[in-house]
Structure formats: structure tokens, C-alpha cells
Amino acid sequence: MRHWGFWQRIFLTLTVLLGAGGAFAAEPRGAADVPWVGRYEGSEIITFDQVAFDEAAFLTRKPKSPERDAADFTRVEGKRTRLTYQAPKGRSALEVYRNYKQKLLAGGFTSVFACQAEACGVNTNYLIRLAYGPELLGPFGFAAGFSRAARYGVFRKTINGVDQIAAVYVAEYANGDYGPRLALMTYEAAGLETGKIVVPSAAEINQSLSASGRIALYGIYFDTGNAVLKPESKPGLDQVLVLMKANAQLSLIVAGHTDSTGDYQANLRLSEQRAGAVVAALVKAGIPSSRLTAFGAGQAAPVASNDNDAGRAKNRRVELVKR
Question: Do 167 and 51 fall into the same domain?
């Protein structure tokens, strides 16, 4: 056990150094501060992730357990940025956190939620996972050693109905050998760029069915928790109709898929109802029902991780399977 403890300390030291920037690692390519937040003087960016439009979930109340409870979060959609900073040695988590708090409050933000150490309800690793996602854990984000004197706060500003939100988390390294590490996630109101979905043509659908026996259609739309086809689904359905009318021998399984959010049985029913709605639309347009089978897979066949928003979006889909 003493032997393992030695190597564990060596590993933690290496991960801290590798993730601390400076002489050991350059800042990620394309990384930049959020202009309306800024960075603590002398800090270096370790990780950087930014998307023009996504769902951002901010932990805005004390969690009762390490499990992700939707009621603990405020959800918004817009521009989302997530960074990890290494602050300089000789500074405390309190000092770094207070500087961010002062900057944001002076800029017109109000405090939505704040907690420190054990008062946050869960230990620091769980809090990081809940507040920022599991992607932020690890040697190049929040290495296990950064767990002392943790502080977390969410700040929000609304001007003319337009929101900006910043979540700040700071913790110190367990033995004090390194400066505090900070996680920052921000949200800015931004409109969704529409018209980006390229609907596969009948020929492209046929090519995929011939090559792999299936194709995922992401141009079939439903409201959350609903199985009524939205009008925006028509271009995608029209291409399926073109293919099936041109090939009278083609029979298909229409499979509905969901992400893992919510109850398993409810997702199973919803996926089958959505598949049935697609089948009903094709039958109404003239395709014999004998050539179509509706099937609900629920959350049982993901094509990406359900641990992040991008993966969950890929898992919510309708597939055509050659029968």
C-alpha cells in the first residue's frame, strides 16, 4: 500500500503539472477569455470549449445527492463557453473567487446561488461533475488533488430580456503546492441558426440502406415529450416517399430512438409512438402499411454518449432499417 501511495503521488504531481499550463503545456489552440468576465491576473487557460448554440444547465440550488436532479438546474439555450484556468501559486481560492464576484457584481450581475466547501451539499468531485459535466474532470481539467476550500457561485444579468450567466468554481490543491484551479461556464443569449439541416435525398437514403441496411434521419422533428410530427419534417418524409414509390419491393422498419433523459418505460413508449407517427404519415401519402413496421427502441441503442448535450441530440433520432 505504501508503494502504491508513492506512485499515486507521482501520478497526481504529473497530472497537475501537465494541466497547469506555463512551462509544461501551451494554452489550447483557439482558447480565449470571455470578454465580459476576463481572467484572474497571472492565470493560464488549461481547457477551452465553446459552441455557438447549445443547451446550458446551471446548478442553481444545493443538490441533495450526487445524482443529477433536473430541478436543481436552470436551463437556457444560446452561446455556451466552458473553460478551466490555473491560477498562480500563492493565491487562495477565496481571493480568486472574490475577485470574480466583485467584477461581475460591478458589471450589473446579481448572485443567483453560492456555496462553499461542505455547505455545497456534495464533495468537490461530485460538485464539479454536476455543475460542469464529467468532461471537466481529469488531469487536463480538474485533477483529483484540487479539492480544498472549494467555492461555487452563479451570477446572472438580464438587460431588455437578454440574459448573460456565469458559473464560477474555485478550489485549492490539497497540499498547497500549486495555485488554485478555476472552472468557468458562461451563457449568452444567441439565436439558433436555422436552415442547417441537409435532408438526405432519396438516392442517398437508398445508398445507405444498400450499404449498411439503415440510415438515421435527423430531419424528422417532434416537440419534447411529444409524438406529433412537426411541419418541418415534410422535406425529409418526402424523400422517403420518393424512394418507396420508386422501389415497390422495399419494406422498412421505422425505429424511434430517444436519449436517456427521463423514465426508461416512458422513453420506450414515446419512441414507439414517434415511429408510429412516421409510419402513419407515409401510409396516408400512399405507401401500403404492409411495407412499414413501427418499432420503439427507446434509449437502448445510443450512437453517442448521453453524458453531454451533443451526444443526447444524436441519440434522439428516427432510423429507417431495411426489412
Answer: yes
Helix, strand, or coil here: 162?
A: strand
Closest CA to 286 of 215, 322, 253, 237: 237
Q: How far apart are CA 210 and CA 61, in angstroms?
A: 51
CB 121 within 8 A of CB 95: no
Q: How far is it, in rounded angstroms, from Cα 300 to Cα 257?
A: 8
* Spatial contact of 79 and 190, defined as CB atoms under 8 Å apart: yes
Alpha carbon distances (Å) from 60 to 225, 240, 251:
24, 44, 49
Domain hosting residue 182, numbered range: 28-189
Per residue in 14-53, pLDDT (tens digit) is 444 444 434 445 788 889 999 999 999 999 999 999 998 8
Question: Do residues 285 and 179 share a domain?
Answer: no
Helix, strand, coil proportions of the chain in percent (round to 5)? Answer: 35, 30, 35
Distance CA 56, CA 165 (A): 10
**Can you give the pTM of this predicted structure?**
0.59
Q: Are residues 226 and 150 in the same domain?
A: no
pLDDT digits (tens, 9 = 90+) for 94-129: 999 999 999 999 999 999 999 998 788 888 778 888
